[in-house]
Specification:
By secondary structure, the chain is mostly helical. The longest helix has 34 residues. The N and C termini lie far apart (38 Å).
Length: 210
């Protein structure tokens, strides 16, 4: 294997510890799972994981230099990502309790496709994820033992696998809780307001953090 085994073990331990601490990705998957059910929660995880694969590819290709050379690019992407999260939150609150007539097979007004695309877009537009990937992954790469791109590929695969194990489990469990709550209309409306508030809070946090 073209990677330092000691660094690989350290990476795996560090990543699993970081994953189990609730963060924006986990909260996003939790909200989607509670609104749409286990399948939607799992597809939201898939969207987040897909975006992480893109982030790893960007880091491996060295495109992080763009944010260094053009600081404004970082600010623009950060603001766009924050605005998108706030939009999702406001939309969820405005349509609280609505039925999903266009997707009757999925309870809670959120289709699997929408959950996947929202997870993909939300994480792709989060420059903090790009900078985290760029700052985190290279610490576990040793150019002396093999091609850098291959090491990034291995680390990225492990990162994505952990994403499915941790956040996927959260999405599945949240969906089962959400199904029970949605049988009660009042509880469902409150649930949508809570989820919308989470999305808005995440957007504001992303907008104000530097």
């Amino acid at each position: 294997m073209p990677i330092n085994e000691h660094l690989l073990t350290l990476f795996a331990l560090t990543t699993i510890v970081a994953m189990v601490v609730p963060g924006p990705d986990m909260l996003f998957v939790l909200g989607c799972g509670m609104r749409g059910g286990p399948r939607v929660g799992l597809l939201a995880t898939a969207g987040v994981a897909t975006s992480e694969a893109v982030h790893v590819a960007v880091a491996a290709a060295g495109l992080a230099a763009l944010f260094t050379a053009v600081p404004l690019a970082f600010t623009v992407v950060r603001i766009v990502g924050a605005a998108y999260l706030i939009y999702l939150g406001v939309r969820t609150i405005r349509h609280r309790g609505d039925d999903a007539s266009d997707v009757p097979s999925v309870p809670g007004g959120m289709s699997g496709r929408r959950a996947y695309l929202n997870g993909l877009a939300t994480n792709l537009l989060n420059p903090k994820m790009v900078t985290f990937t760029i700052a985190f992954l290279p610490q576990f790469v040793d150019p002396r033992v093999g091609p850098v791109w291959a090491q990034f590929a291995i680390l990225g695969a492990i990162l994505i696998a952990f994403e499915f194990v941790v956040d996927g489990t959260v999405g599945l469990l949240a969906g089962r809780i959400g199904r029970w709550l949605r049988r009660r209309r009042t509880a469902r409306r409150r649930l949508d307001v809570a989820v919308g508030g989470v999305f808005i809070g995440l957007g504001i946090r992303l907008a104000v953090e530097r």
